[in-house]
Input
Amino acid sequence: MIRVTIYNEYVHEKKDEAVRAIYPDGIHMALKKHLEDEELQISTVTLDELPEGLSDEVLENTDVLVWWGHMAHQHVPDEVAVRVQQAVLRGMGMVVLHSGHHSKPFKLLMGTSCNLTWRENGDYELVWVCNPAHPIAQGIGRFIKLEAEETYGEPFGVPEPDELVFIGSYQGGEVFRSGCCYRKENGKVFYFQPGHETVPTYHHPEILKVIKNAIKWAHPIYRVKALECPHVGKPLED
Ligand code: ZN
Output
């Protein structure tokens, strides 16, 4: 079993009727319902439950943290962002979704602005597989077609991905690095662009397949209790 914690700020769904119609119990509950099976054991946490909801203990018992946030990034306590960053460096996996590109923990992990260009015109998106041999692309064809998504465009202010799995292209001509893998010390991070709150992206079977593949890819194979810089005293040989 992979222990997954899904963080969703859970603000749009409570304020906006159109979003609630798509995700009546919140994006976190939709993802949990679609993804939970014999391989994934899923807990959820929302902004209202911070900081305790993402305590050190919760993170130590999380193999992969999934993060969706948008309008309330600034309300995530700094201490939580640092805890998440440190947990990733120790080995926890993380899957950052859509507008999570501007979340505090993702920006800490990237060390860059994570800015991009965006517009909402109801464009369709093609999420192209650019690395079909990658574990996260398994079970996906050449591309995933999303009838409508928010348009994200380059430049995307992130470090060069260690592996690029998807490139999104949009009706209006933009392209965007939609699926980016990073290794951060002992932990793995996957950023995945689809998932604007006013379109039903997280009910799309292939998008869910990618998220599940990403969780399995990010699942830690090596994890330490603490990050240390030990003085080893004697040389191996005299
Ligand atoms: Zn959005």
